[in-house]
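#struct-pred

JT: dropping the chains for the assembly here, can someone run the whole complex?
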Amino acid sequence: MAELKKDEKIIQLVNVTKAFDETVAVENVSFYVRKGEFITFLGPSGCGKTTTLRMIAGFDIPTSGKILLNGQDITNLPPNKRPVNTVFQRYALFPHLNIYDNIAFGLKLKKVPVTYMNDKGDKYVKMQKLTRREIDEKVKNALSVVDLEGFEKRSVSTLSGGQQQRVAIARAIVNEPEILLLDEPLGALDLKMRKEMQIELKEMHRKLGITFIYVTHDQEEALTMSDTIVVMKDGCIQQIGTPTDIYNEPANAFVADFIGDSNIFNGTIVGKFTVRFCNRNFKCVDDFERNEKVDVVVRPEDIKMTDEAGGMLVGRVTSVVFKGVHYEITAMVGRSEVVIQSTQSRNVGNIIGLIIEPDDIHIMKKELTVNKYDGYITKKNTVAFGDGEFECDVTTLYPGSHLDEEGYLITATGEKLDLTDVDVSVEVGLQDIELSDNADEGGARGHIVQLIYKGDHYQYIVRTEENEEDFVLDSPDLWNENDYVSVKIKPENIRLALKQEKQNG
Amino acid sequence: MVKKILSVLLCAAVLVFIYAPILLLVVYSFTTSNVIGKWEGNFSFELYAQVFRSAEIMQILFNTVWLALAAAALSTVLGTAGAIGIFYSRRRAAKPLQAASQIPVINAEIVTAISLALLFSAVFLYRTYLSLIVGHMVLCTPFVVLSVLPKLKQMDSNTYEAALDLGASPSQALFKVVVPQIFSGILSGFMLSITLSLDDYIVTAFTKPPMFDTISTYVYNAVKNGTNSSTPALRALSALIFVVMIVILLVVNLRARKPSSKEAAK
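RK: done, full complex below.
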C-alpha cells in the first residue's frame, strides 16, 4: 500500500448536493480524498455514487456545494479543463478510431509549455503540441502498462470486452491525470476476468502512484482493492473507513447488511458490556447506555458450533448449503434465524449449540426506534400525518377530557374546545404499524423502499408518494421491495402531543 | 407447390404493374416516333443524342443538378444540427421537437408549397433563387433528421463525454467524435435529399424564378397540353433520370447494409 500523506487532500467535496428536476441524487455530501489513495464509493444502484463521480469529472455540476481540487475551487470547471480522466462503465471507446488513435486522442489535443532560448539568450515559454515521437512513445508505454503491446493498428470492434477495458484504462492513464476515475469498470466482465483485473488495477495503482476513485456496487471488489471505502445509500454517506473498519465495525444495519453476510438481531443493553438478544445475555466489548435498543451484528463466520450442552444458544438446523470453501448452515434459535458459515457440516434437523465470543458481537445504535411526524387534527377528530389520515383518540391530548355528541372536546375543567386544525406531534412505534394489500384499509399508502432482514423479522420502510413520508416498521411477514401497501395503525397506538402551549378556544 | 407458383406469380404481377409503364417509356426512348405506341424507323439512340445536343435541355439538367446539390448540402447541415440538438435536449423537450421536425414529412406537399409562396411574397422574395432553395430545404431537412437520429441513438452517448474528459472542447468533441460516428446517417440523409430535390415538381413550380426550369417543371410544361409529340427527346431524358435514380438508390442501400454486415461478421 502506498504511504498516504495525511494532510494532502487532493480533492474535497464540501456539502455537495445534486438534484435532477425533483429527485435528489446526492444530498449534502462532504468528504475528502488523500493524494495517492484508492478510494471506493460503494452502494446499491441509485445511491448517488455515479453522480458523485460525474461531479468530480465535471459532467454534472452540483446544485449546491463546492468541489476543491488541491484547495482550488473547480465546481464549475468544464471536464476538459480538469486534470482528471475517467474510465467509463461501458468503455466508451471511439469506434471510428483504431487502438492507437483512441489512446492518442487526449495527447493530440494536449499542449505543453516548452522553454526556448532566443538569439539574445532570453528564455521564453511557448505552448506547443506534443511531437509525433513523444505521442508514439507515450502510447507505447500505456499499452505496455495494460499488457496490450502490438495492438496499435487493431480496430475497437475486434477486441474482447476485457481488452476493450484495458484500452479504456490506457486511454485515461496516458494523459497522466492527477486522479483516475473508474465507474464500475469491471461490471461487464465475467467473474474470472474481473478477479484478474482487480489485481491488475491494484498493481497499476501501486505503480502509477496516482489517486484512484472507484465506483462499484460489488462489496467484495471494494473490500479487495480499496484503501478507503465510502458506503452510500439514498444520496447520503453511511460510513467512511478502511475495508477492515467497514467490515468489522459497520456504522448501522444498512452497512452491515450490505457488506458481507451478517446476522442482525434486535438487542437491548442490559448492563455494562452486556447485551441481550435471542433471549440470552451476552458479554460484549461496546459500551452503550443501559436499556438502549440496539442492532446486534454477528458475522456468520464468527459463530462457532458445538453440542447442545456447551452452546450459549441452542438451535435446530433448517438448511445446509455447500459453498465450496465452507458450508452455510441456517439454524432456528427460538424465533430467530441464524446463519453460520463453517467448514464442518451438520444435517438438517440436528440440534446444535452456538458460541459467540464477545469480540465477535458488534453493536450499533438503532437508527430509529419510533416514527415521529408533524400532524394536525381534522374536523372529524382524526389526525392527519405522513400523507394520510388516521383514527385516533384525541382525548389523550387533555388528561381527563371527553368528547360531547357534537364532537367538541370537554376538558377535565369543563372547557369546550374545537380541535380542528390543531397542530400535534405524532409518535408511532415500529411494532405498531401493520401493512395491508388493500389500499383502502389503512390511513396512508406507499411503496416499500427498503427491507432488511433482522433474524426473526423484517424491518421495512414504506414511503408515500406525495410528500415522501417514511413509515418504518418491524413485521414478521414477508413483503417485497416496491410493493404498494397501505399502512394501518390502531388508534390506541398513535401517541399524540400538543405542539404549542395550550391553545384555548 | 401450387402455393409457391401462385406467390411467385403474384409478385411478378405486382412488379409488372409497377414497372411496365417505365419499361414502356424506356423501350420507346429508342425510336424517333413522335407518338408513343407507334414504332417508327429503326432502333436508334437518336433521342439520346438529341438530349445532349440540345442546349436548352443541357441547361435545365445543369439547373436541376446544381439546385439538388445546393439544397441537399444545406439541408444536410441544418438537419444534422437539428438531430444533434434534439438528441441532446432534455427528454421533455426532445419528444415535441422531434414530432415538430417531422410535420413537413406528412404535410401535403401542395400545402407546403402554397405556404412558402405566401411567405415569400409577403417579404418580396417570391420566385427568387432564395425562395427556391429554402423551399427545397423545407422538403429535405426532415428526412436528414430522420436518417441521422437513429445513428445518434445507436451511438454510445458516453463517447462525447469521454472526448471532453480527454481534453477536447465541446466543438472538438462534436467534430472528432460525434460526427464521425453518425457519418453514415449524414451521408444517407444527403443522398436522400438529392433524390427528393431532383424529382420535386410541386414546390419547385411554386417557388422558382420565372425563367428558371428544372427537369420536372420542363417536362411538365412540355407534356401539359396532352401530347408528348413536341419533344420526343424527353423520353430519353426520363429514361436517363430513371436509370440515375436506380443507381443512386442502389448505392445508398448498399452503403447502409455494409456496416451492419461487418458487425454480423464480428
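JT: nice. DSSP finds eight helices and 35 strands in chain A. Chain A touches chain B at residues 57-59, 78-80, 84-86, 88-90, 92-96, 105-106, 109-110, 157-158, 171-172, 175 (CB under 8 Å).
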